[in-house]
Amino acid sequence: MKIAFIASECDPFVKTGGLADVVGALPKALKELGHEVIIILPLYDSIRKKNLHIDPFFGSMGVWMGAGVEHWCAVKKTVTHDNIAVYFIEYDHYFARTGLYNDSSNNDYADNAARFAFFSRASLQLLMDMNFKPDVIHAHDWQTAPVCAYVKTWGWGGSGIDKAATVLTIHNIGYQGVYPADVYKYAGFSEWDFRSDIFEDHGRVNFLKAGIHYSDMVTTVSPTYARETLDGSQSYGLAPYLNNKKERYVGILNGVDYSAWDPANDKLIPAKFTPEKMDGKRVCRNELKKKFGLDSSKDVPVLGVVSRFADQKGLDVFAGAVERILNSMLVHVAILGAGDANLEKYFSWLPSIMPGKAGSYIGYNNDIAHLIEAGSDFFIMPSRYEPCGLNQIYSLRYGTLPIVRNTGGLADTVIQYNEKTGAGTGFKFDYLSVDSIYDSVGWAVSTYFDRPEHLKKMRKTAMTQDFSWTRSAKEYEMIYLDILKKA
Ligand code: ADP
Q1: How far is the CA of 307 from the centre of ligand 1 (A)?
Q2: CB of 254 sitting under 6 A from ligand 1
Q3: What residue owns the CA closest to ligand 1's atom 8?
Q4: According to a count of CB atoms within 10 Å of the terminal CB, is the N or C end of the chain lower?
Q5: For residue 281, what pLDDT is reported?
Q6: CA 318 to CA 326: how far, in whole Å?
Q7: CB-based contacts of 74: which residues, under 8 Å, 6+ apart?
Q8: How many independent structural domains does the chain possess?
Q9: Are residues 175 and 209 in the same domain?
Q10: What is the CATH number of the domain that holds 159?
Q11: Is residue 439 located within the same domain as residue 479?
């Protein structure tokens, strides 16, 4: 199959979240299954500054929008180490800015809707002008959801664009691209489509909703998140529209990159280890304790946190429980994260009132993230919602048992501990509250001290779970083939 990925982020070029990981890894896994995949991205300033080897491809390309507006942009191209062609739409008026979606004060750019309508439209123009006839066009999140609408509502001549099947992946339904309706004419969709089941949302435009309507298949990043968005508990208002599409909506778990996240060959940790030979994990724990100023004179397990400090992650509730935990249990905490100013303040202050028991690093630091995964015994993610989540999957591979809220991808990747048999890979709780966090950490800590044989067994089970991209790519491949059959 010929597949075109159209997205606003792709690791390692540009990343703000999990979307970039998927767009960075899935094409490679699909290529290994024998498909031809190309990726189209905006040429942001941050990509330019990386000084990568990027060549001119089209010196100029005309892109018609609605209302008779035509923009002239350029296209650049690079080829990744895995031999995947990546094309960049160069249009400085929209993309030569410091942030991707927000200015330096964290406000949305006022013209975001116009920027990504243009990018979606220009990406299709590129496919047409380079005569790439895709079997599948795979769009991601609200930013490129308009691609699915353009494919179905614009005239594409004999280019084959309208013959392509469109797939829209929702990485986080909390972000829908809802903007004032004055962009609608410029975007170039018909008045007829400005309806509450397509583009209209309380008088504004909603790009994600229109993408759901017009795509041939909608996916999200875990089966449980798919259910939670259908039953309305996590849909941010889009449940009715997803239910209209129920037969064509599935959750496929993201994979993780085990070449970067595996204690058997992780170059960023002080000692490597495997399920058969675990000595290195103790070395990592000692190093972690040293780095975070934790008391290493006694055998006390470490509870790790690596997270954005955002409402979604539930760390405000963890903050309400952590002092009680540290005052009453034999456990230490090592916290890495950044984001919400109040949580940054609280977690940077915590070590001063819990010396030797709590350590924190406020900021983004990949090396420390690896050290926490490797050196901790438990890892907590009390998320309010979690479309897929990566850190709990990394934790499993490092034998660091996750303590998670039973939601989204956390529910799908962690197996509940069975206290009778020692089966399972972690500790799950349903309701997000200070008490349930306290109880679940207590359950984990008591397992560490009272049932060490269970802990050993769980670690082994956790470390041998397979969440590789090959597995996910095969599921996407099946979906592509299925919609092509139906088309
Ligand atoms: P989300 O994408 O919602 O932030 P995920 O668990 O899916 O959550 O992925 C988070 C990714 O970002 C992981 O790779 C994690 O290691 C990394 N990460 C998050 N915060 C930090 C931080 N402060 N320092 C280093 N890495 C971080």
Answers
A1: 5
A2: no
A3: 389
A4: C
A5: 98
A6: 12
A7: 56, 58, 59, 60, 61, 90, 91
A8: 2
A9: yes
A10: 3.40.50.2000
A11: no
